[in-house]
Amino acid sequence: MKAFDLVIAKDAAHAVTLLAEHGPSARVLAGGTDLLVELKSASRVPRVVLDISRAAELKGIELTDQGLRIGALVTHTELMRFPLIRDLFPALVDAAHSIGAVQTRNLGTLGGNLVTCVPSMDSGPTLVALDALVTITGPGGRRQLPLSDFFAGPRKSMLEPEDLLLDIVIPKENLGKPADFQKFGLRKGQALALVNAAASLWVDWERDVCVAPRIALGAVAPTVIRARAAEAYLEGRAITPEALAEAGRIAVAEARPISDFRASADYRRDLIAVLTRRALANAYARATAKRDGEKQ
Amino acid sequence: MTDVTAVTMKLNGVTRTASAVPPETTLLALLRNQFNLTGAKLGCDVGDCGACTVIVDGNAVNACLMLAAQADGSDVLTIEGLATLERLHPLQKAFEDNASLQCGFCGPGVILSAKALLDENPDPTQQEIRDALSGNLCRCTGYTKMIEAVQVAARALRAKPDA
Ligand SMILES: Cc1cc2nc3c(=O)[nH]c(=O)nc-3n(C[C@H](O)[C@H](O)[C@H](O)COP(=O)(O)OP(=O)(O)OC[C@H]3O[C@@H](n4cnc5c(N)ncnc54)[C@H](O)[C@@H]3O)c2cc1C
Ligand code: FES
Ligand code: FES
After folding, report:
1. Each residue's pLDDT tens digit, A103-150
2. Ligand 2: distance of its center to the CA of B135 in Å?
3. Residues in chain B within 8 Å Cβ distance of A31
4. CA of A105 to the centre of ligand 1 (A)
5. What is the ipTM of this complex?
6. Which of A81, A291, B27, B146 could in theory staple to B63 by disulfide, Cβ–Cβ 3.0 to 4.6 A?
7. Does residue A248 lie within any of the structural domains?
């Protein structure tokens, strides 16, 4: 790696001050599993690398008035092990588990994964399907925006160079919303997604119809996307195998997959239909299991 | 801001300090070049192969993807810290008895990944062992004998946790 200066932020406020001071000549370092790979092959490295990994406010998972707050520095392993996450959102556990291998999950953070804005990121779809918000702090103070708006393009987020991603919030009304994550890679471990998909839904059991369905897809467009037409098709509709398959077909038309060395666009289109259907079916199965659990 | 920093860590149970570490030094480079612990290998240098696996504060990590400065104040275990002069660690013994390695390049990383697993989960299923080793690439063996050795070591450790 080419030489850089390393500055260690004590806490979030210190990090913001340091970022304001160094501006675009600085890069933030969290778990380093993406940044260090990038810097090792880069012909030019930033003058300053700002290590935020010791900032306590960016760690931890907790329930707040707003919902479930997950600090940006929470690692994929911590997410997988956290009792509240395992309880409320098994889909988030599956998504975290699908990332790289143990060593990568022990270092890599949720915030780092989202900020990379890599279209195949595995943390994005489930959180988008749960209407998650991100909290950003910068010179102008704090602001929040929907995660789906945070992805500006491939490898481009809405963060300004002076901004820090603080946390990810799953809104209160979605706590425990049945959801599922599906990933198709070329191997079970250490493989990026050819396509990944997440779905969440509530069920109106009186009428046995789908309420507030969400479908999010990764690796099929410049950013993680929502399949809004497929969602609209399912809203208020009875959940049958045919309806879920049709939602999968509609989602295909909303994606813009490319061909690359991992898979052709046609193959990705087939995967979108299948993974969308499976994610919806599993979310529905989780909803059913939850209802049956509550009845007892 | 500094050109060099001091890094202090508990390394295989002993507190060690490296005084002049350039910021871009990885933990792997520090271990191999400054502390002369060459058990952790430099394979891919980008997190794919696991040959550089060490245990930091109980977690298996790729030392090639961590800056030395990020390990300041941590407890680091490398393969050199596993055996005593008298005897091998049960994992090392099981790998030897079972002829689980061929060229051995992946070995230190595989054994440390297995150690981190058994520390947390003394009775893993075969699938859990596979999952724990999925970040350690082996070009020689096909993994079967490694998985068997981890099962043997797990049994030995359950019978005698202090072995
Ligand atoms: C071998 C290997 C396998 C992988 N497999 C997968 C996989 O299967 N699926 C997947 O999705 N990803 C995978 N990744 C990518 C990577 O591990 C994840 O994206 C990881 O979560 C990144 O987090 P990090 O903390 O390591 O980020 P870092 O490398 O520290 O940072 C990544 C980027 O985000 C910025 N950043 C980080 N945190 C913040 C913050 N709080 N505020 C502002 N900016 C910030 C950094 O400046 C940098 O640009 C893999 C990586 C490796 C090396
Ligand atoms: S050398 Fe670190 S993972 Fe390959
Ligand atoms: S024994 Fe040769 S790489 Fe594993």
Report:
1. 999 999 999 999 999 999 999 999 999 999 999 999 889 999 999 999
2. 9
3. 65
4. 10
5. 0.96
6. B27
7. yes
